[in-house]
Design a protein that fits this description.
This is Thiopurine S-methyltransferase. By secondary structure, the chain is an alpha/beta fold. It is built from six helices and eight strands; from the N terminus they run ααβαβαβββαβαββ. The strands form two sheets. The chain has a five-stranded mixed sheet with strand order 1-2-5-4-3, covered by helices on one side. Strands 6-8-7 form a three-stranded antiparallel sheet, sandwiched between helices.
Length: 220
């Protein structure tokens, strides 16, 4: 492996506007599911989350865990199997149905009267509820997450660092300064771990390194 990818102390790009014109529409996202362009899905689950799961849960039981943009993340079943309640939001109905099918979970579905066209899919056990609707009908992702945080909250956020002048995303580049700007007034932001996430397929993006960072946000 060459030196450009061995160091996890990668360059930060101060221009957070470099990707501002790159928009992933709802149609783009749903098309990825239909065309099976879902390399973001990790069949074995997110390994950094698995590694730091106990630190996140801190021995607590009966938590309510929110998965924004959940797709068919297998991690949702990890939490449900530990006795926690899971709420997810995903625009792709296909992704939601695949989650229940692949996890061998029976479920029901019903419309959400307050949101035209939206549905909620609930596991028969009652501890997993996945809402099929557009999270971004609300103005800002960061504002949404902050509004959902109760006293004593814990929030895990995974972001990627790479050269955004070479690749427009997704996933989108998020700098340390941007994280502090969006969440720092309310949260203590701790980087739990950085890992080299670069794979052969990323060469086609025109980049030569990709670092994943896992942050833990707690109440200030």
């Amino acid at each position: 492996m060459d030196d450009t990818r061995t160091s996890l102390d990668v360059k930060e790009y101060p221009d957070t506007e470099v990707q501002k014109n790159r928009i992933l529409t709802l149609e783009d996202w749903q098309e990825k599911w239909v065309e099976r362009k879902i390399t973001f899905h990790q069949e074995q689950g997110h390994q950094l989350l698995k590694k730091h799961l106990d630190a996140f849960l801190k021995g607590e039981s009966g938590l309510r865990v929110f998965f924004p943009l959940c797709g068919k993340a297998v991690e949702m079943k990890w939490f449900a199997d530990r006795g926690h309640s899971v709420v997810g939001v995903e625009i792709s109905e296909l992704g939601i149905r695949e989650f229940f099918t692949e996890q061998n979970l029976s479920y029901s579905e019903e419309p959400i009267k307050e949101i035209p066209g939206a549905k909620v899919f609930k596991s028969s056990s009652g501890n997993i509820s996945l809402y099929c609707c557009n999270l971004f009908d609300l103005p800002s992702y960061a504002d949404i997450m902050l509004s959902l945080m109760r006293k004593g909250f814990q929030y895990l956020l995974s972001v990627f660092s790479y050269d955004p002048t070479k690749y427009a995303g997704p996933p989108f580049y998020v700098s340390d300064d941007e994280i502090k700007r969006l969440f720092g007034s309310v949260c203590t932001c701790q980087c739990l771990e950085k890992v080299d996430a670069f794979e052969e397929r990323h060469k086609s993006w025109g980049i030569d390194y990709l670092v994943e960072k896992l942050y833990l946000f707690t109440e200030k």
